Amino acid sequence: MPDWPFIAGALWLGIGTSISPCPLATNIAAVAFLARRTGQGRRVVWAGLAYTAGRAVAYTAVAAAIAWGVLSAPALSEFVRTRLTGLIGPLLILVGMVIAGWLPLRLPGSSKFNELGSWLAQRGMAGEFLLGALFALSFCPASAAIFFGLLLPMTVKADAPVSLSLLYGLGTAVPVIVAVFLLARGIEFAGRLQALQKLGGQLQTATAMVIIAAGVWLTVSGLLP
Is residue 10 classed as helix, strand or coil in its secondary structure? Predict the structure, then answer.
């Protein structure tokens, strides 16, 4: 079992990812796909849980495969465990710059994902599970920077790729979890998610500033005698 700082960090990274503009947009799309269940309160909750499970399992599979590959190489594993602390400051600065949009990071487009997502959402719980996995793997610059730049090094350092990435995946689905429970109670939430999306840019910039500040502090403190 990883230490509490790692647990809290992984969950917070997931929640931070969920409110970034691109992941929030996919969560809003997911709510729209799942909203057809609004007349079936219990069913929409199960649909949301299946979607959440799909996100968590997808992130866990990717993180576990990469982390176990690193840990299975003794030299690389030792480097990560002993030298990562000295590299985490500059790494945080780079990740923050990517999240802020100051460094270009282009990933394959996901324009076809909405069409496929709509089709999957009509295939019952198995389709909703796959919808979550699909949207999880549609990395955009912000989510890719957080996942590959922060979460993966954390899972390797804590030697807990499964539990930490699972918590991260659950955190990324928080808006959907909240929305489907409100929908199940007959409360319209899509408009509020749209309003939250408008704040996404500001939240993303604020998150980037915090990450950069932490990176600068760690870097400077590491250079001081």
Answer: helix
